[in-house]
């Protein structure tokens, strides 16, 4: 289930099959529909890298968990890099007047700390594991951090800018990212330059007794 037609189409193309149902929906509408017609309780609900886009989602997490059958689990992962240089630089640049007047995207921190998921999900009859991991991604090629982030966190900003401003913004952002994440000419692999991108992610798994 995803709110993007492109994402649902890509998932269907990657794993077609009569035994899989792909649903185009906003998670809030999906949950509201389940409230009215619960249907069969699922064994597991898994959400990857989605809830960071959903404001105030912490309130809906226990209700989502309550859908699973006894013995079943809710598992989720969200990126938690709002304070990383990549995102701080994005916000600083987007706040400059020449860009701010175009940017409609709200760059609010919707991420939730592992402890908050733990507190929300730790209820009688549930076992909860929640943790954070910082992955050190070693990226190759020119401007690899820009390439990465322009497809995710920076996308709403880039999409809201007119062509000329988008080009200028991208040029400035690339340069700032190169300074914040310098390419290291070390063994990544041997002899090749690699750019290290630390990426923090939060996980929570709640299992019903
Ligand atoms: C980083 S992608 C992750 C996609 C996929 N879950 C994966 O693991 O590859 C974030 C996804 O969240 C989806 N999304 C954002 N807000 C949503 C919402 N309110 N309801 C459902 N999906 C949403 C976006 O359409 C996007 O495809």
Shape: globular
Which radius of gyration do the C-alpha atoms yield?
Answer: 20 Å
Query: How many distinct beta strands?
Result: 5
Uncertain segments of ≥5 residues (pLDDT<50)?
none
The CATH topology is what? Rossmann fold
Bound molecules: S-adenosylmethionine
Distance between the termini: 26 Å
Describe this structure in words.
Helix 4 runs antiparallel to helix 9 (163-180). The chain has helices spanning 5-14, 27-36, 61-65, 85-94, 97-100, 114-121, 144-150, 155-160, 163-180; strands spanning 44-48, 73-79, 126-139, 184-185, 193-208. The model has no long low-confidence stretch (mean pLDDT 92). It contains nine helices and five strands; from the N terminus they run H-H-E-H-E-H-H-H-E-H-H-H-E-E. Helix content is 37%, strand content 21%. Strands 1, 2, 3, 4 and 5 form a five-stranded mixed β-sheet that branches. Strand 4 (184-185) and strand 5 (193-208) form a beta hairpin. It is globular. By secondary structure, it is an alpha+beta fold. It has one domain (40-208): Vaccinia Virus protein VP39 (Rossmann fold), CATH 3.40.50. The structure holds S-adenosylmethionine (SAM).
Summary tags:
binds S-adenosylmethionine; 209 residues; alpha+beta; 9 helices; Rossmann fold; single chain
Briefly say what this structure is.
The chain is an alpha+beta fold and 209 residues long. It has helices at residues 5-14, 27-36, 61-65, 85-94, 97-100, 114-121, 144-150, 155-160, 163-180, and strands at residues 44-48, 73-79, 126-139, 184-185, 193-208.
